[in-house]
Amino acid sequence: MKFGTVKKGEDIRDTKFKTFNQSELTSECWLIQMQGIKACKKCEFFNTEECGGQEILKKLNAIE
Asked: Where are the alpha helices (DSSP H) in 1-64?
């Protein structure tokens, strides 16, 4: 699976992609697993009961 972010008006050829083995991802929030905690800044579900990354955030905060 390839993951990258393209902003409006950008050429996709200039975008950096990360490649992930999809079998290594868990059922927790994929955006956090791919982008890190910065993914939460734009997430409408951050700090709500619907957040799919609550457990992974606890794990990441325990490491830092």
From this structure: 30-35, 54-63
Prediction pTM value: 0.62
Contacts 24+ apart (CB under 8 A), 58-64: 60/32, 60/36
Domain span including residue 36: 2-63
**Distance (Å) of CA 40 to CA 9, 23, 27, 43:** 24, 23, 16, 5
Contact 18, 2 (CB under 8 A): yes
Residue 39 C-beta-side C-alpha neighbours within 13 Å: 19
pLDDT tens-digit readout, 25-36: 888 998 888 888
For residue 8, which amino acid is it? Answer: K
